[in-house]
Amino acid sequence: MNPRTGGPARAAQYLVLLGYLVFLAFPFLWLISTAFKPARELGSLHPTWIPENPTLDNFRTAFDEQPLLQAAANSLLAAACAAFLAVLVATPMAYVMARHRSRLSTAATGWVVVSQAFPIVLMIIPLFLILKHLHLINTRWGLIMVYVVWALPFALWMLTGYVRAVPVELEEAASVDGAGRLRTLVSVTAPLLAPGIVATALFAFITAWNELFFALVLLKTPEKQTLPVVLTHFIGAEGAADLGPLAAAAFLATLPSLVIFAVIQRRITGGMTAGAVKS
Amino acid sequence: MRASLTRTAAAATAVLALLLTGCAGPDNGGDDGRIELTFQSLAWQKESVDANKQLVKEWNETHPDIHVSYVQGSWDTVHDQLLTSFEGDEAPDVIHDASDDLADFAYGGHLADLRGLLPARLTADIPRESWETTTFGDGVYGVPFLQEPRVLIANARILKESGVRIPTPRNPWSWAEFRQITGELTKEGRYGVAWPLKEPVSVTLNLGLSGGGKLFHRGADGKVTIRADEGDRVVPGVIHDQVNTDRSASRTALGMGGSDTLPGFFGGKYAMVPLGFSYRQQVVEQAPEGFEWMVLPAPAGSGGLAQGVSPQTLSVSAASPHKKAAAQFIDFLLRPPNMVRLAKGDWMLPTGTAALADPSLHTAENGWATGVAVAEELRPAPAQSVRGYPEWKDKVATPALQEYYSGAIGAEELRKRLVDDGNRVLARYQR
């Protein structure tokens, strides 16, 4: 037995891991605890993990005060469309960049990385003017377009790595066996790329789901606003907050991400590591 | 093969383009001939949102020719959101904001000058001091309608048991008396006061007026310079001494926001907390059963009970094609009974003298009467119209005051930073 993986060492590893998990989970667990606490417990000098008098009032108030379901539907639509379109556009582009290396593709990759460094405020006004010219202000599709463009560079970068991880020899073998380019892409490359595509789509989805600033600026009418925008309505001047309903609404807002992660977690792990080691 | 790939990519792009263009276009309904106004409100507490929505509904029912749509904004993001909307010529017609956020928009030509648009009734109803908070250059760019003084929220039982004199607006504590009393209220495990000074600048400047402080001085040439006189040292000096000399103010509270101090206040850890008037709502909601509390006026000095405020305002976008109708709606929203409804919804004070006289605001319950009594002493926040103030606040005053209150630097070093460094900052804006 390797002494480094023996009993005490392994126990220590698990202990550290457990501590790390607790550290990571703390904000979320506290959020859940807060969401179920009545107002008087929120102001307690000695807060407890488990609410002494758990209540659903915060959820009721949150739903009464703000159109959370409508906002969640808007967020879902925007995030799902953004994820789908970003992957749809990025996949063929990534394939080209990975398989046909040239100065142009190297420059494009560099630009993709650099573009991530631009602060959002730098581009919001030109973007706003462009969308206004296209009559896309205060439209869901305007927001989706922005999300696609916003997610595209990173999605492209991710997918390029995944494409490179697929051995080109497989495609060549398919070609030797008589498969055309499209058939090779669909039958050989795409299945191998699937984990990467899922991981990239998830990235685009989460990015759009959590995004606040674009939605805040581009959408005006209440029935089109997304969940992050509606959550800000629980916050007042000088940082004062309607803490209970805010926690309840924020807890609900995190659920879709958690569910999606839980469902496709294994595929993501595969996707994340697919390009990590050169074969 | 390369051509095939190119065709595939082109097809995908075409599908995307078709999908987007097919679904694009404004989602708003068509123009039916009525004047359509949008009103962006920053109301966030339930009662306040309800009051605003109800008033919009009443307006729409009685004004079929001018329809107002309620749009919910957010205090947290309003500046960036409005800035973008103005640049994109998509701003709401009627804009809710705070007076200290208006200067850039007013000087930038984004807000309509309201002179000549507002009825005499409304103009006369709001005191001159309040109008000063929305006057930039020669124009008036907002109607100040709600204001919030800073008051002392006190644990009534601790104060009564200690036997200290309970101050009233007519007979408030002096700053020296306040310091002495917080010392008396300090016991093992309890501080006389907790100053939540996460944002120390506005508290210091606004309360500083009561000590005779001014700090910002406008010369005959219109240029503003910073000068620290005797009166400017009163309020910071008391806070510093409470924390560092008397130990009657909690040191840990210095880094807190207002809400953060409430658990300690409810738990008897602090006898008093200086907070904005609207925090009473959180006290009512969160205080434990049987908790006795009272609202006291902030201490007075050579400037009396004066303190600076930045009222909430209603403005009209300069790009609005319906400025007159927007002003009519503002007039409706701010009729005395309506102003009272808005004030109660936000737990704040109305600026209008007729609304302030409303009997329902003169009740002792939840300290309303104390707030109303303080209202006539409210003045424009000292620096809100000074260009360069935000930079001075963030780069110079905030760190300097934080260090001073924590005891890291002394009064002379504070003065040097606020004045010498501060004037260098302001000079760049006034060349």
The order of strands across the largest sheet of chain B is 2-1-3-14-6-15
| Poorly predicted sequence stretches spanning 5 or more consecutive residues of chain A | none
Strand content of chain B: 15-25%
Main β-sheet of chain A: number of strands, strand sense, barrel status?
none
Shape of chain B: globular
Total helices of chain A: the number is 12
Percent strand of chain A equals under 5%
Average pLDDT confidence of chain B is: 90
- Evaluate the radius of gyration of chain A: 23 Å
What portion of residues of chain B is helical? 40-55%
> How widely separated are the two ends of chain A?
29 Å
Protein chains sharing the most extensive interface: A-B, 62 and 61 residues
DSSP strand count of chain B:
16
Question: H/E series of chain A, N to C?
Answer: HHHHHHHHHHHH
What's the mean pLDDT score of chain A? 85
Major sheet of chain B, described briefly? 6 strands, mixed
Distance between the termini of chain B: 65 Å
For the secondary structure, the number of strands of chain A is 0
User: What fraction, in percent, of the residue positions of chain A are helical?
Assistant: over 70%
Question: Could you describe the 3D structure shown?
Answer:
The complex is a heterodimer of chains A (279) and B (431). Chain A is an all-alpha fold and 279 residues long. Chain A contains twelve helices and no strands. In chain A, helix 3 crosses helix 12 (243-274), helix 7 crosses helix 9 and helix 8 (168-176) runs antiparallel to helix 9. The longest helix of chain A is centred in the N-terminal third of the chain and has 32 residues, at 68-99. Chain A is globular, with a radius of gyration of 23 Å. The two termini of chain A are 29 Å apart. The relative contact order of chain A is 0.14. With 431 residues, chain B is α/β, with parallel strands linked by helices. Chain B has 18 helices and 16 strands. In chain B, the strands form five sheets. Chain B has a six-stranded mixed beta sheet, sandwiched between helices. A four-stranded mixed beta sheet of chain B has the order 8-11-7-12. Chain B has a two-stranded antiparallel ribbon with strand order 4-5. In chain B, helix 2 (46-62) runs antiparallel to helix 14 (336-346) and helix 17 (389-406) runs antiparallel to helix 18 (411-429). The longest helix of chain B is centred in the N-terminal third of the chain and has 22 residues, at 2-23. The radius of gyration of chain B is 25 Å and the shape is globular. In chain B, 49% of the residues are buried. At the A-B interface, helix 2, helix 3, helix 4, helix 6 and helix 7 of A face helix 1, strand 2, helix 3, helix 11 and helix 12 of B.
